[in-house]
Structure formats: C-alpha cells, structure tokens
Amino acid sequence: MMVAKSTVKEEALQKIKVTKTTASRLSEVDFDNLVFGKKYADHMLVADFDGKEWKNAQILPFQNLSVSPSNAAWHYGQAIFEGIKAYKDPQGNPMIFRPYDNYKRFNISAERMGMPEVPEWLFIGGLDLLIDLDRNWIPTGDGCSLYLRPFMIAADEFIGVRPSDTYKFAIINSPSGPYFNKPIKLLVQDKYVRAFPGGVGYAKAAGNYGGAMYPTMQARKQGYDQILWVDGYEHKYLQECGTMNVFAIIGNTAVTPDLTQGTILEGVTRASVMDVLSDMGLTVEERPVSIDEIVTAYKKGSLREVFGTGTAASVAYVEQLDYKDEHLRLDTAKYEVGAEVIRRLDAIRTGRAADTRHWNYRVGE
Ligand code: COI
C-alpha cells in the first residue's frame, strides 16, 4: 500500500463524481452461464488527463465513449491496460485481488509508453468506489469473478507521430466465467517473436497483444489454443504462453522464466503462484528455462506438469506442447500440483482461507 487506504478513499470521494444508473441491467445477465468478457456491469469510471493533471473523474452508467477518428491511440497504439479480479467472501463482502500490484504495473507500462502516471486516488480509490457500487455484479460460481479492466488511451486529435498530450483513463467491469474451460494445446513459436530485450514486452501495452494475433491465428488453424513464445536470439528460452506466464513442474521443482530480460509480463498471478508453490513445499526457480530442458525432462519422465498463469486464465493446464518434431503429451487429469495451487488460490481469493499475505483489498471499508 502506498498511501493510507482511508486517505486515498477520501481523495477519491472528493474528486470522483458519481452518477448512478436508473436502469440496472443486472437482471438481464444469466449468472449461471457466464462466459469471459462479454457482459458489462452497470457502471464505469472515466477521467481525462489535460496535459497537466487528471480531471473530470466520474463514475457513470456504462456507455460508449466518443472518440475522434484522428485519435492518436487508434493510429499509433499509445494504449495500456490491466486485468484484475473481484470476488466475494463467504459473507458476501466484495474483495479485489492484489490491486496495488496491478496499479504498480500499470504505471510501469505508462512510463514505457510515454504516458502519464495515474494517481492512487483515481486507480485504487476509483476501483473501490466503482466495485462498491457494482458489488451485486460479482459472480460467485465456480471459476467466476468480476473481471476489472482499467485502461488508458492517448486522446489527442492529431495524426502526427508524437506522444499525446492528453489521455483518457477508464475502468470497466465484466462478470466473467473461466477464460479457458478445458486444458490447452500449445505450439512453441520459433519464427515469430513477441518481445526483445529493450522492447515493450514487460508492459501491458495493447500492441503486444495486437502483434500476437497473426501468429496465434496461424497456430489456431493447426489446432492449437495458444503460442508458447521463446526468445528472439536463440529461439529456445521460454517467455510467455499466449496471455499467460508459464510454469513447468519438473520433479519437485517449479521453474518459470525470470524477468531480467524485460521481455515478459511480471504477472500478479505468477507472483501469487510462486508463493503458493513454496508454501506447498516445492522449490521455485525463476531463471532462464529452455525448451530443450522441458523436452529432456519429458523424455526422462520427470516433467510432471506445465501450466499457464494469468489474471484472466487463472491457472490453465497444458495438455499438449509441440516444438518442431517434439510432441509432448501431458495427462492433465493427473495434475496434482496445479490442482492444489488452484484450490489454495481460490480459497484465499474468496476469503475461505487465511489471507496471510494481505492480498485481498476489502471494498467499501
Ligand atoms: C489478463 O490475464 O488479465 C489479461 O489481461 C489477459 C488477456 C485477457 C488479455
């Protein structure tokens, strides 16, 4: 926590104008059959950066934004975002999972993209007020949550290439079911590259996802769900898989690529999973992990599990991993480590287990 929660909330209450909806759409949503990211809660938050400060902060009914065709974000991609989830505890109180970590990462992304920092009263205080208002939109079904999407886009109306002076920040919320509803198939991509050292790989910048679309489409045509990205120099060190960080369980050790090259996202779920794995007694190694090491472990019979981790996907089991002529097949029905990680994480996020690391942010308190 950067500033006392009460101070941040006080500032948010002073600076954010709230207009409640008079026509809730809550009853239109089938909470028993939620998919990921298709429905939006009643309210959203918006604010403008005028070149000097953040102003016009307001929470208002969910609606379209009006944007000029010459908007700089549309043309040059000055756009960043975050993914966060809100849950309810057994008493029905809303909680947000590790929002300060996403807040920190958001401003790291902003700096890399030449965008202004977002103050805590707007991001954290805004989330608090918004989720308090939309608390009835938090689903409680298995694998469900309210997915929170803060984002910032350039707002200048100018088609010359330079950093925008003005920006728009917004938060929208989506009651969501699981991102993947079955184990995934991964193709190790050894032609296209997601990120190089010195690039924007560590930022949650829209362009990182845009650049992944074509190679992912190609992989999908071959029956894969996602790509496992590797480094651009040697095409062998693992980076991320699709929209997630990646873990392999080899014997009693969990390995995951380290962050030192600045080519992968510092996942909040990744960090949580590393802590949970340590709690479970596994050795956790954050270091360069080559695809050759994974293939060798598979052939020796010591590769137990491979899974992706991310806010949206949570923990996604990998059942197939193909790399050149190597075809790894994993029996995800036997995944004990991943299953226990999911069980422990879910219990913490929904207030059914002690939150010893203070990951849950209690809304409205
Ligand atoms: C997330 O895991 O929250 C993401 O942002 C991944 C994806 C939905 C873009």
Account of the 3D structure:
- Helix 1 (5-15) crosses helix 4 (120-133) and helix 6 (268-279) crosses helix 8 (337-349).
- This protein has helices at residues 5-15, 72-76, 99-112, 120-133, 206-221, 268-279, 291-300, 337-349, and strands at 17-18, 43-49, 54-61, 79-81, 84-88, 94-97, 145-154, 167-176, 184-189, 226-230, 238-241, 245-250, 253-256, 283-286, 303-310, 314-323, 326-329, 360-362.
- The longest helix is centred in the middle third of the chain and has 16 residues, at 206-221.
- The model has no long low-confidence stretch (mean pLDDT 97).
- Helices cover 26% and strands 28% of the residues.
- A hairpin with a 4-residue loop joins strand 2 and strand 3.
- The radius of gyration is 21 Å and the shape is globular.
- The strands form 2 sheets. Strands 1, 2, 3, 4, 5, 6, 7, 8 and 18 form a 9-stranded mixed sheet that branches. Strands 9, 10, 11, 12, 13, 14, 15, 16 and 17 form a 9-stranded mixed sheet that branches.
- The protein has 365 residues and is of the alpha+beta class.
- The protein has 8 helices and 18 strands.
- Bound molecules: 2-OXO-4-methylpentanoic acid.
